[in-house]
User: What shape does this take?
Amino acid sequence: MKSLVALALFITPIFSASLTTAATEAPKSTIMGFIPGEDPEWLRRNGVLLAKALQEKLGVPINIYIAKNYGDLTKAMEGGLVDFAFLSAMTFVEAESAGAKVLLKKVWDGPFYYSAIITPQHSKIKSIKDLEGKRIGWVDEKSASGHLYPEVMLIKKGFKPSLFFKEQKYFGQHEAAVKGLFAGAVDAIAVYADDKNAKTGAWTRFAPKSKVKVLWVSSPIPNDPFCVRQAFYAQYPKFTHEMMFALQDFKNVPGDKNLLKTLYGIKYLEFATSKQYDPVRELVKYLKLSGE
Assistant: This one.
């Protein structure tokens, strides 16, 4: 993988570890991990605010962990370094075999999001075929919307990415990919879209004044899950459920006090099951069979 621009951080919220626990059986502290899909400083700042609010609700000190890349968070969970994590659909599928258990999933405008390949509106590129010999920008090798879904599309169309593109560049974050596109670092990028028509997406969030041309939109992708380490869940089931309910309670708080909406643009978190990520498993299976 080429250069990634996130870093791993531990941030300890301001509360003392001597807080009384809300549950009869609860950990002395816990660690929550975040996928580096956004600017790491933005994630750190908002992660601390979320951890502080949850700590007040649960009475247990909560630290946060900002992963260096998508795969780093999977390894952190597998190694027992992280107890809870906001994963991507793809990293959950990988982390599940390493002991991750899905609890909830994010809801923005609906239960799914999409991948879109975009280019600046003034670009002469008009179709996927026109990308041959051009420079493509990906988010991360393990990003569903920022790499894997469009990669499968290209392979099914008979285009081998390593031969089709002049250059493949990994930006590490959706925001960095959008900024890279408009800075001229690449000719097109793959990032998330909010709806099936790609009316809004990473570009409207990170470069709202810039106009784009949408070349392709994927099939629906299951929304990003919130997971727990299976061994942690087995030891602290009551606390795990209290964490779930505390996160869901934010949707009942009006206005700007809904931290999920204020910090991450999420309407709420809803219950999720492992089976809902079967489409991603099929994608992984296809990539292995194709040799990519």
Summary: Residues 1-24 have pLDDT under 50 and may be disordered.
